[in-house]
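User: Please predict the structure of the protein below. I'd like the answer in structure-token form so I can feed it into my own downstream comparison script.

Assistant: Understood. Taking the following sequence of 269 residues as input:
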Amino acid sequence: MSSASIPLTVEAYRDGRSVKTEALVTLQMEGEAGKTAEKGAEAEGNEDTLLQQVKEVVSELPEGENRILLPGRLEDGTRLRWEKKREIEPIAAILMILPLGMLFLYRDKQQKIMRARKKQIDEIRKGLPAFQDQLLLLLSSGLIFHDAFVRIAESFQKRLRKDALQKLIIEVVCVNRETGASLITVLDHHARELGVREFSRMVTIIVENQNKGVDLREKLESESAILWTQRKKLAEERGKAAETKLSFPLAILLMVLIVITASPAILEM
């Protein structure tokens, strides 16, 4: 014998009052029908009498093999409204979870972008003092700025592993050759897009040299000294931060060492 159980909700209205309860209606597909309804969950509200009448109607539903005719009114005229109990479909659950998943992916993507940006800025700041020293060395040997810059870019191009600053210098030279724009214009454009203060200061010195004839080597030497000082301070700050992070594990190791050392004496007491 096969059967089908259908969860329903029934709501009763009388004299401006209403109560709601749940019922599980079971249809017998063949043979004699068993109990056709089971008691539902506790109803909402305090209308005990009306609720009891509704439950009696639910428990006395007529037996049927394929279908049951649900009553629309009680004997006292109370109206009944039957509805199939709504359940969250798998598709609806997926549609609810999908926005959360998209938000998580978006945040993860944004965090990756921020980490990549921070890494790029750190590499540029770290490599800028050495780059300026190379530029000063070539300028002192008699090369003009354009030739010195291109030669440094060519030396970067031969390296297998390149940091963010080296990639930036190579890109500036490539854009200069492909578009025909002046090296100073391309460099200034990249500096504005990048937004790194130290790199922008260096480019400003170079632009002023080309436009106003400012002594490039003297300005770069002064800027290089400032950058090396900043790099030393940054290294010191990172060292102190590393010491702070290691202090807690070291304290735990020290406590473990004290316990191991003192345990024989404690056990002998």
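That's the full token string. The chain is about 65% helix and 10% strand.
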